[in-house]
Input
Amino acid sequence: MQFYKVTLELARTKEFPQGSARHGYHLVVPLDESGQLDVESWRENKKKCTVHRFWEGEDDQHGHLIHTRHRTWAFSYAPGEDDDEPLFHLESHRLRPGEYISIREHNGETLPFLVTEVIPL
Output
């Protein structure tokens, strides 16, 4: 099992046509050889699977990667579902530089993010 620090940066949106390195996430997650989430390692090491949300103009948030009762993956910053940020099809995405992933922010808006860095820990 190998853990990685993965950086996601806001991809092109109407508000940020060039994307933004000042809006995104740092994840610590176990990945397999193909760059996909290693679910078994996540199960065994849930507390190590963290997220740090950085968003210019807002306080940073720190939380964990969770698997919800709705069978989806999400970032959670506090107990309960009010602040959860679902990730679309994380189980089938490769977290490698150049890949994209969609995240529904806790305000309900779905935004695209670009994987910009994957560093072994």
About this structure: The chain has one domain: 2-120.
